[in-house]
Amino acid sequence: MFRHPLRSFLPAIAIVVSIFSFAQLLGGTRLRGLSNEVAADLAARAAAAVVEEPEVPEPIVKPKRTRTRKTTTETATAAQDTSPTIPAEGSVPAEETSTKPKAKRTRKPKAVKKEEDEIDASQQSRSPLAAEILGNLARFPHCILLTRVGQFYESYFDQAAEVAKLLNIKLASKSWGGKRVLMCGFPIMHLNKYLDILVKQNKRFVAICDEFMRNPTLGPKGGFDRRVSRVVTPGTLIDEPFLNAYENNYLVAVASPKDEPGSIPDGEPSSKLGLAWIDVSTGDFFTKGTTLDELRDELVRIGPKEVVLDRSLQPLEQHPIRQVISDESLFVSYIEIADTVDIEPPSQDPSTQQPSDDLISKPESPRPESLVQPLEASEFSAVQLLAAFMHAHLLEHMPTLISPNREVDSGRMQIDAHTLRALEIRESMREGGTAGTLLSVVKRTITTSGTRLLTRWLCSPSTSVNEINTRQSLVAFFKQRSHLRADLVQQLGNVEDTTRIIQKFLSGRGDASDLLAVCSTIGVWASITSRIQIEKEAEIQRREVLGDDWTSLNMLLTGMCDLRSLADSINRALVQGDAAYASTADVPSSGIREGTTDISDSDMDTLLSSSQNPARHVASSTRQEWSQLGTRILDVTTAIYIEEREAFEALRNQVKSQANDLRKNARILDELDVTLAFANLAEELNFCRPVLREDTSYAVVDGRHPTVELGLLTAGRTFIPNSITFTQNEPLHIITGPNMAGKSTLLRQTALISILAQTGSFVPADSAEIGIVDRVFSRIGAKDDLFRDRSTFMVEMLETAEILRRATPKSLVIMDEVGRGTTVDDGLAIAFATVHHLLSVNKCRALFATHFHEIADLLGYTDDHKGRGEFSGISFFCTSVDEMEDGYFSYSHRLTPGINRDSHGLKVAQLAGMPTPVLSIATAAMSHLKAMKNGERGERQNLQAIGQMLASQQHP
Ligand SMILES: Nc1ncnc2c1ncn2[C@@H]1O[C@H](COP(=O)(O)OP(=O)(O)OP(=O)(O)O)[C@@H](O)[C@H]1O
User: Fold this and answer.
1) Known SMART domains for this protein (predicted)?
2) What are phi and psi of 144, to 5 degrees?
């Protein structure tokens, strides 16, 4: 830490100050059991009291002003064992969770209480705390207000009842201005625990009113002020310990392109909308232009913790934007841009751009000017809305907004909302957790920020062959060099979450331990680059020439900035191992406390008891001298503190000024982490490198489903691989087969392989050649949505309609059992029409699994397992059941050309333990039904004729 020459005397100084200031102020109250933090706080307050100036806020409740500070101490001490009936300003509120023993209530004689009430009444008009609280409640009417009073955060008036209930803490009351006022509170060290409950769990806004030194140059002597420095909302968390570091915590604004603030976007599906989203804790900031039609997909992909809309939408519950947000159960907030002055959009200067999400192929990031496209009007509105919300809530912790990363549809594969869920890319459908998801299977990243990047890539794969190839080259490079891979993975374990730390500095929060983290990470970056350099030199020595496969890594690393001088500055100022000391910008009252935390309880006790020991009791004149000495020492302490603070501030500014370079290096390391992870994955699970093309081909030989395969492996079973080939002339496959024979698995694996390939990963197959997919759509399984008056069949139809409207010739569609939720005739008719539309209108690659084997006849099924005439682009494949003579059977899971007209549903019923009488009746019924169908000779031929006739007709 800052090694000011006098710092080593601080413990002694603090002790002396504590003893002689406190002993007098507390009237000999014993401090036994006082925590360091409390003791240190009291030291600062007591120190302030020694030189108390007239503007120090007056007490509200206590009748005798001279006892105010003493009351603080008494009640704070009492926090260990009692809860006062009438808490005073700076006193212990009635926090006590159920785990704590019930506090004794000490009733005051009625006469005393009456007197207090009267005094309260007389003091009400000049009660600074009451005025502050009432003022803040009026300024932040939508928030729960937590006001710091000494070592506690307190809530007052009616709000206290709600807070006490939500936090399960005791509700008390105090007398203020002759009235009983409700109050509750908790010790400051529990703030994060309770913010988690209020903000994350209950989605409440919390305005935090902290204490700050009135004049930092005077230190605590100058007294303290209170002000709301931040409103914590679900989308504006900065470095709260309850944040999941492996996930982004996004705040997203949705706006219409209208220039006028407050204009209501029209409800047309094609109406343009702008999105701007930021993770306040990491600074990851993006914009995108979209349409109302695609809003749901975008929001589900981004997964925001909070959505910001213009206030004009608040009363319009039925507005389509509101509907999407409510359907997806997203938390929404409103703001008026007009309310907020001076909202500067982020700079368009490329030098202030944050690194793009695809550094390998664009190593010169920040992106060159030519690539920086101006924001659309709708995006600009969204940025304004987002900035307005951030200003209004982050207040003093508002970070500098750098230019956002602008997303464009053409650069990313679009995965619609249903598909993201159905393919379980990020979240599992069953428990909503991550077990069994694609992310959980492929995740080999070491760092938290690398994992966040991996998640973004998986949810938004690239559509640029160049970008994908560069990522794959890097994976191939590391796959071939296992020693280098292992060394780098080990070093990544020492990398701190730099983007998050930088953001702390940019929002005025970084402390000394964060400086140390920055410093050590710069060191790790240096050792990673030097390890790579060693590898390079060894290779040149061995082969006399550097392999072409170094190109991608060289490209990535050219973007690394040399930040050793920053590390040196930090190193010079800090001494490792003393990171507990932390300074803050505007010095909340905790600033000085931490400088005095060296006082141990036992030190205190020893010195206090020695001062109370009659044998060593100092004479009162000596006491006077010591007291003066204490005051002088305090002056020195303050001077030290101020110097340290200035030194710290200088370092902090240095980090801020190099924030862009730090951020860029961190992002490069994230990409290194992800590509190393892909290399490990390919090695461990035997994945192959796919070839990506700019066409609509798809040829995967012996592909596997990554998560099902892993599940089977752990159960000692083997996954049966299958091959799928789409060509331009045969883009659609119909899959039939028994229940439980692997149809859905095949559909999913086909989509997952293309997603993995376009993410830059290798894929679970023997070989793969894949034409770039612009959008993946799926219609797999469906749950009903009775809450929104939608039956299972309705949900199925909504999803199918969406796909048929939006799939393009470059899309990949997987559809499982469309039409199963209604009668066979209705279902078959819908399935047939859907296939026809996919083939003739969407013209996309599609896998269509069904139990309606009659569809094959409608599509003109021929002996070479293809459709006829209009349907010649359709190929038929099936799975089957291998039946043994002894009545046993097994699923082959192997895909073969053809059609399987037997669903073997009764076998699954038997496996599921259906009662024997039910099974025998079902078997008898089945044979009757088959006999009836066989009687209708010519049915198949009739269906074929109908199918061709329908396809050749013009339909509106
Ligand atoms: N290729 C495969 N190799 C080995 N086991 C497989 C394979 N495909 C699927 N399975 C196993 O079979 C189970 C059922 O697969 P799936 O759900 O894909 O069948 P389905 O044909 O879609 O069934 P249904 O028609 O009843 O929906 C899977 O959970 C998995 O355990």
Assistant:
1) MUTSac, MUTSd
2) -85, 130
Whose C-alpha lies nearest to ligand 1, atom 15? 742
Q: Is 744 in the pocket of ligand 1 (CB under 6 A)?
A: yes
* Ligand 1 proximity of 581 Cβ (cutoff 6 Å): no
- Ligand 1 site, residue 741, Cβ cutoff 6 A: yes
Would you say the CB of residue 735 lies under 6 angstroms from ligand 1? no
Model confidence band, residue 39 (pLDDT cutoffs 50, 70, 90): very low
pTM of the predicted structure, to 2 decimals: 0.77
pLDDT tens for 16-29 read: 444 433 333 333 33
Structure tokens, 220? 């605590």
Tens-digit pLDDT profile for residues 692-719: 999 999 999 999 999 999 989 988 899 9
- What is the token pair recorded at 80? 């260990």
CA distances from 323 to 37, 293, 327, 741 (A): 49, 12, 6, 39
Strand-pair partners of 769: 691, 699
Q: Hey, whose CA ends up nearest to atom 7 of ligand 1?
A: 742
| Cβ 742 under 6 angstroms from ligand 1 | yes
- Separation between Cα atoms, residue 654 and residue 570, nearest integer Å: 9
Alpha carbon distance 742, 745 (integer Å): 5
Q: What is the pLDDT of residue 915?
A: 82
Does residue 895 line the site of ligand 1, with CB under 6 A?
no
Q: Report how far ligand 1's centroid is from the alpha carbon of 879 (Å).
A: 10
Q: Ligand 1, from 430, 705, 708: best to mutate by most atoms within 8 Å of Cβ?
A: 708
Q: Is 19 in the pocket of ligand 1 (CB under 6 A)?
A: no
Sequence-separated (6 or more) residues with CB below 8 Å from residue 405: 284, 285, 286, 287, 353, 354, 356, 357
Confirm or reject: Cβ of 720 under 6 Å from ligand 1.
Answer: yes
**Domains in the chain, please, with CATH?**
80-213+217-241 (3.40.1170.10), 248-353+371-410 (3.30.420.110), 688-904 (3.40.50.300)
- Whether 213 and 591 have beta carbons less than 8 Å apart is answered as yes
Peptide bond into 315 cis (omega under 30): no
